Amino acid sequence: MVNKPAAQQPSDDPRGDGVRELERVILSLNDVLEDPTRTRRVLQHELYGIAVDRVLEPRSGGVVLDMTCVPLPELAVARYNSERARVSIRPDGAIYSFPLGPDRTWHHRYPSPLGKQFGHLGGELCLWYPKDPRWLRWEWDDGVEQYVTRVYRHVFYEEYYRREGHWPVEDAPHDDPVAGEHPIRSAFMCKEEHRWAS
Asked: What is the DSSP string of the chain?
């Protein structure tokens, strides 16, 4: 699905004013399922630091994307390494993400569905609190690009947590609140909450 132009960029179009409009692509579930090759191309060309290493189409349906996340230049200077992740998309729209690579500690990752004795084996990344308001959660209307962006950010946040001992932004709670909703503590997040509510 291609939306209206999102920005303008210099162009060598001699017919006009030298500015061409960029198109903003939002890949829906159907886009991903119908054309995984295009999905790979869009993710690699539209998102910084994403290389889709492999696209799998399981017999049961859906699409699996194995990706390498290259750190931002500032993180590379701080000796952050590339991270690997897998995004698994089912035909019904369920979407899961998993880190690939060596076994490490994780702050925001679900335990293994196989049981506690398996640690995080097969446990997906926890990218948002399921009971968060809509503006803090991802949904298919946001496009798979936004989901992959969350995965990218998350794997580097996890490495920051391993190095520094705290999450680099306001942390999401992990349990149901005793009463009402979890409080939003930072001034920035309170401002965003009001902006989205209006």
From this structure: -EEEEEEEEE---TTTTSEEEEEEE---HHHHHH-HHHHHHHHHHHSTTEEEEEEE--TTS-EEEEEEEPPPHHHHHTTPPPEEEEEEE-TTS-EEEEEESS----SSBPPPTT-GGGTTTTPPB--S-TTS-GGGS--GGG-HHHHHHHHHHHHHHHHHHHHHSS-SSPPPP-S--SSSSPPP-SHHHHHHHHHHH-
Alpha-carbon dihedral angle through residues 128, 132, 133, 136, given to the nearest 10 degrees: -20
Tens digit of each residue's pLDDT, the chain (198 residues): 444 344 444 444 444 555 545 456 799 999 999 999 999 999 999 999 999 999 999 999 999 999 999 999 999 999 999 999 999 999 999 999 999 998 888 888 877 776 676 656 677 898 887 777 788 889 999 999 999 999 999 999 999 999 999 988 876 665 565 555 656 666 766 676 666 565
